[in-house]
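pinned: reference chain
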Amino acid sequence: MKHNLIGALVLTMVLGCISACGDGGSPATATSPSPAGPFTITVLRQNGSQSFSPNPAAAGGQMVVFRNADTVTHRVRLNDLSIDTGDIAPGAISSAVQMPASGANYHCSIHPDMIGALSAAAGGPAPPCEGIYCD
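pinned: its structure tokens
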């Protein structure tokens, strides 16, 4: 019985080393670090294009959360209505949303004069703002 237990322990250690250490003949594959988390855009107050920070945000193609640092509820929507955070209470953070890689323009649907923009993922400028939510 004691020999079976020792044999099982040795086998477990050998299999663990093989899976953790590689097969011995191949170089180890480096893993990339895990992402730091979603990009945060802060909702400041009702103040036109100064209502969000940063603005424009270099977050095209990234996961984004909106943090409401104001004393009233806000609701962020892309101008094309493809993304809607739902109501964000004072002090709360929205669920993470995947932003378009091409960039986007957005606004607070409760306070339409609050506007913001996302730069394109490739580092280009935000798309031109068109429509009723633009300055």
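why pinned: Helices lie at 2-21. The two ends are 81 Å apart (CA to CA).
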